Amino acid sequence: MVRRVAAAITVTTLLVSGCAAQQKSPAGQGPGGQGTAAQGVTDTTVKVGGVLTKTSASGYSTKDAEIGAKARFERANAEGGVNGRKIDFIGAEDDGQDAAKGDAAAKKLVQKDQVFALVPVHAPNFGGAAFLEQQGVPWFGWATGPQWCGTKTGFGYNGCLAPKPGAGSQTWWGRQMADLLGGAEGKSVYVQTSDSSGSKYGGTTISQSFTAAGFKLVGVNSGLPAAAPPPDWLPYVNKIMTSNGGKAPDVVVSVIAGTKFNVGLYSALKRAGYQGVLTDATSYDAAILKDQASAQALEGVIAAPMFEPFESTAPEIARFKQDVEKVAPGAVPTQHMAIGYWAADIFLDMLGKAGKDLTRERFLAVGNGDYLYENAGFGRIQYPKDHSEPNGCGALVKLEKGAFQVAKSMKCFDNVPLK
């Protein structure tokens, strides 16, 4: 009789404990909070973490994106959070510019750290896209490669930079450059990429951006190794200097990830007597001003950031600087910092529109349901359209006498079908 009573008490205790655990689970989760629908969500917090390229053999690093994201999240938390929940930002993993490590980092964040979403993802060779798509986990960052495109979970703050043929392709870079140079008629352009998939895709879309603006494309070279700068730049320089009917082109576009690459290429071109326009998407970096050799090599370069420059007087940029100063006093704004910041900003806007009863399914339904967000800091983003094409927005900044100056403020242009 005693054993039967004890057993009954044990069963009753387990049932009560189970009910209590279920009642304490965050909204949308199963018993014990183990369900995936609202993983990373409690009544008061939303957990997120990111994947960045903090270290790499080439020296390329996006680690500052962590500061940018943290700055934006801290402001949101100081303002009371989103729908009553504050952002629990656990920082970013390092993929070392290796696809396999990126995949492992994504799995760790989702399966071990139990995050709701990945913010920011800023890694050129990110390898976790397929896993996140299969798991239905949202991720936000700089969409530099084809792994971002055609997904339902990947939200690049700039859209998709690797559209498929027939989808919209960006024209803003070429059009901004044409406006800056007083027109594109009679002017030629040469595009240098590396042999990485992201760089090759970028070379195709950027080439069309310039031809759509009226420039004559005289060459695209994708033979440059992506792992490290070559010991001899002469073969690449010779091709460039004779690409325009035996003479140099008016504009050289570098679609290469890393300051070391651009310093090497531009220095070699200048030694060969090149006097045209040099432009790329990565040289807008205050860190290069600290190195005299790099600053000299990049003197005159026109960088093309996909956000409003830090030298702008726009209120959004003033707020960005204030937010960064609070989490990293004395830090100099960088392109990667801005990318992390604007990726976090879009995530927060989407999170707010998803409402209080938060699940990943509801969040993705909002993001993929005629979503539109405009901000003078980065332009505009539209989903689901921008899962397959760029947002069409960007600015130009010139390095002149050791300082960056706004050459063209950020502007958005219509895309054209990729050929």
Structural class: alpha/beta
What is the radius of gyration?
Answer: 24 Å
- Strand composition percent: 15-25%
Q: Which H/E pattern describes the elements?
A: HEHEHEHEEEHEHEHEHEHEHHHEEEEE
In total, the number of strands is 16
Coarse shape: globular
How far apart, in Å, are the first and last alpha carbons? 83 Å
Spatial sequence of strands, sheet with the most strands: 8-7-9-10-11-14-15
Estimate the helix proportion, in percent. 25-40%
The largest pleated sheet is described as:
7 strands, mixed
Mean pLDDT: 90
| Uncertain segments | 1-37
Question: Helical element count?
Answer: 12
Describe the structure in your own words.
The structure is a single chain. With 419 residues, this protein is of the alpha/beta class. Strand 3, helix 4 and strand 4 form a beta-alpha-beta unit. The chain is 36% helix and 21% strand. The N and C termini lie far apart (83 Å). The protein has twelve helices and 16 strands. The N terminus is likely disordered.
Structure, briefly:
With 419 residues, the protein is of the alpha/beta class.
Task: Map the helices and strands.
Layout: H1 2-24, E1 45-52, H2 65-78, E2 86-94, H3 99-112, E3 117-122, H4 129-135, E4 139-141, E5 154-156, E6 168-169, H5 172-180, E7 188-194, H6 197-212, E8 216-224, H7 234-241, E9 251-255, H8 259-271, E10 277-280, H9 292-298, E11 302-303, H10 315-327, H11 335-354, H12 360-367, E12 371-375, E13 379-383, E14 393-400, E15 403-412, E16 416-417
Can you tag this structure with a few keywords?
419 residues, alpha/beta, 36% helix
